[in-house]
Design a protein that fits this description.
Elements: H1 10-27, E1 42-45, E2 52-55, H2 58-78, H3 84-98, H4 109-133, H5 138-160, H6 162-168, H7 170-200, H8 204-224, H9 230-258, H10 287-290, H11 301-339, H12 357-367, H13 372-415, H14 427-467, H15 470-476, H16 484-520, H17 524-528, H18 535-543, H19 547-646
Antiparallel strand pairs: 1-2
Organism: Leptocoma aspasia
Subcellular location: Cytoplasm; Endosome
Keywords: Coiled coil, Cytoplasm, Endosome
Length: 647
């Protein structure tokens, strides 16, 4: 009863552990397993579905208590009891490795793997925070952060499983988005510190690319953080200030001082995670946790002790096999990471059969606005007309002033006077001054007007294309041309990549079969009737049942070297095809971006064109008035000169 309603503190954890231990003691003496004589119905409620699930099996009771122990530790971890994440991971790991996954959907292998990696990820986060506060070396902080990313990537894989998605329902999307946001965020932190290490080593080109990568990853994290609490947004803004400042400073220094080549990110060594947290092991029968065995007198302990010894033999067998599997998996993962070959996108040929959605959207928008190009051209023509009128008015004013000045000089030469004649009209100086001001405005605007026409000419063809038939748009996008040999190279590469995946899947399947076989392997009944001196022989006989599975696994692991050699050879032949495909993809992306940019430039061009028309219409009115004044002033000046000549 106490274990069902535990307090949300470490006392509650202690209660759950005690109860778990006593259930183990009880199970070793009374046949309460599934289908056994002493089995009683055990009912618990599934955490996600809310359904009551009943099994007549004491191990189901143990499994549910373990789940709650992990859940309670995770709650305490959220309350800042920082060691709790590792305790929670330990409980979920023991549950995954020692109990059937068929009891309830929330105890499936995927859900438990999700829980374990979420706990380890958060525990590693705490360690990362401490390392940063302690000012540990940049490279160590980068590796710790990279391991946070690795744990969350594993959690994300579990979340993407179809069974997990259907079980979690709506929260699956929220969790996945949050986990992906954390993946990008901590990848940004890792590359920030790799950039700081490059800075310490005076590798200024590397520093720029690491900070740029950190900035790119942080921007992805910010996109995924929509809807997160203000504390998260504030942390992202702070990180953006730090990384943005670092990047801008590094780029500026490199551009103006160091002039080091900035390497491509994929040419630099990847940051390998440093797992500094682990799932704390669970020992259900630890007397320091369970207290005295309250069933000590019910059954002989000899059978229980022998069963524990056999369990240790099975565990040793599993550890040996898993060490070999993990060593091969690590080699395989590192090899595949270095190859950077994704079976889904090895050729990308399918993308060239369709117009991308972003471009279709622009084409659709222009199809309902057929006058787009005509409106832009007309707007620019009107602007040109007003521009020409203003230029003509200002030229006429300038010509009038120059003519008047010439006449004035003739008069002065004739009369022999250098200074202006007394009584000359004062209006011309003001007209000249105002004309100079308008000419200056016109000259500045003329540059803007020229730039606007250049921009319009740049985008006009693209806008006509987007507004035309889709076949023409598709024809504009570049497509790769592959020879028969190239296609053969691609097919061979994809075949070997499929072989790699098949090898992975078979390995996982054999590992799962081994785990399930070990979990179901209970020889307690045989041990009760076996003499103590015969125990070792019985163990050896019983362990032979695993030999066939071990042979299959050994064959799978041995095949890896040949498969990877074949993949290496295929990849060498693929290099030229890969380069050609990458170049076409780059051109394709550039073309798409250029067309999208032209669409997005339309509104800006129209706005600036209207602003230009407004400016020149106003200037035209002022120039026309000034022209009238210039004419009047010149006439008055001419009349004044005539008076002087008549005297």
């Amino acid at each position: 009863q106490s274990a069902v309603s535990v307090p949300r503190d470490f006392e509650g954890c202690s209660t759950l552990r005690k109860y778990l231990g006593q259930l183990h003691f009880l199970q070793s003496r009374i046949p309460m397993g599934q289908g056994q004589e002493g089995a009683v119905p055990v009912t618990w409620t599934e955490i996600f579905s809310g359904k009551a699930v009943t099994h007549e099996d004491i191990k189901y009771e143990q499994a549910c208590v373990l789940y709650n122990l992990g859940a309670l530790h995770s709650m305490l971890g959220a309350m800042d009891k920082r060691v709790s994440e590792e305790c929670a991971a330990g409980a979920f790991t023991y549950l995954r490795d020692h109990f059937p996954h068929s009891y309830s959907v929330d105890m499936s292998h995927q859900i438990l793997s999700l829980n374990i990696n979420l706990m380890l990820g958060q525990a590693q986060e705490c360690l990362l925070e401490k390392s940063m506060l302690d000012n540990r070396k940049s490279f160590l902080v980068a590796r710790i952060s990279a391991q946070v990313v690795d744990y969350y990537k594993e959690a994300c894989r579990a979340l993407e499983n179809s069974e997990t998605a259907s079980l979690l329902g709506k929260i699956q999307k929220d969790w996945k988005k949050l986990v992906q946001m954390k993946i990008y965020y901590f990848a940004a932190v890792a590359h920030l510190h790799m950039g700081k290490q490059a800075e310490e080593q005076q590798k200024f080109g590397e520093r720029v690319i690491y900070f740029q990568s950190a900035l790119d990853k942080l921007n992805e994290a910010i996109k995924l953080a929509k809807g997160q609490p203000e504390t998260v947004q504030e942390a992202l803004r702070f990180t953006m200030d730090v990384i943005g400042g670092k990047y801008n400073s590094a780029k500026k220094d490199n551009d103006f001082i160091y002039h080091e080549a900035v390497p491509a990110l994929d040419t630099l060594q990847s940051v390998k995670g440093a797992p500094l947290v682990k799932a704390l092991p669970v020992n259900p029968t630890d007397p320091a946790v369970t207290g005295p065995d309250i069933f000590a007198k019910l059954v002989p302990m000899a059978a229980h002790e022998a069963s524990s010894l056999y369990s240790e033999e099975k565990a040793k067998l599993l550890r040996d096999v898993m060490a070999k599997i993990e060593a091969k998996n690590e080699v395989l993962d590192q090899f595949m990471d270095s190859m950077q070959l994704d079976p889904e996108t090895v050729d990308n040929l399918d993308m060239y059969n369709h117009i991308p959605p972003v471009l279709m959207e622009k084409c659709a928008a222009l199809s309902v606005r057929p006058d787009t190009v005509r409106n832009l051209v007309q707007s620019m023509q009107v602007l040109s007309g007003v521009f020409t009128d203003v230029e003509a008015s200002l030229k006429e004013i300038r010509d009038l002033l120059e003519e008047d000045e010439a006449q004035e000089r003739k008069l002065q030469e004739l009369l022999g006077r250098v200074p202006p004649a007394p009584g000359s009209p004062p209006g011309l100086a003001e007209v000249s001054k105002e004309c100079s001001k308008y000419l200056e405005l016109h000259e500045k605007a003329s540059f803007t007007n020229t730039e606007l026409h250049r921009a319009m000419n740049l985008h006009l063809g693209n806008l006509r294309l987007l507004g035309g038939p889709l076949e023409q748009v598709r024809a504009t996008l570049p497509t790769p041309t592959l020879s028969e040999d190239d296609k053969q190279v691609l097919q061979n590469l994809k075949r070997i990549l499929a072989k790699v995946q098949e090898m992975r899947d078979q390995r996982m399947s054999l590992e799962q079969q081994l785990r399930e076989m070990i979990q179901k392997d209970d020889i307690t009944t045989s041990l009760v009737t076996t003499d103590r001196s015969e125990m070792k022989k019985l163990f050896e006989e019983q362990l032979k049942k695993y030999d066939q599975l071990k042979v299959y696994l050994e064959q799978n692991l041995a095949a890896q070297e040949n498969v990877l050699k074949a993949l290496t050879d295929a990849n060498v032949k693929y290099a030229a095809v890969r380069k050609a495909l990458a170049e076409v993809e780059h051109k394709w992306n550039t073309t798409v971006q250029t067309l999208v940019a032209s669409y997005e430039a339309y509104e800006d061009l129209m706005k600036k064109s209207q602003e230009g028309k407004d400016f020149y219409t106003d200037l035209e009115g002022k120039a026309a008035k000034l022209l009238e004044r210039a004419r009047a002033a010149c006439q008055a000046s001419e009349a004044h000169r005539q008076q002087l000549l008549e005297r």
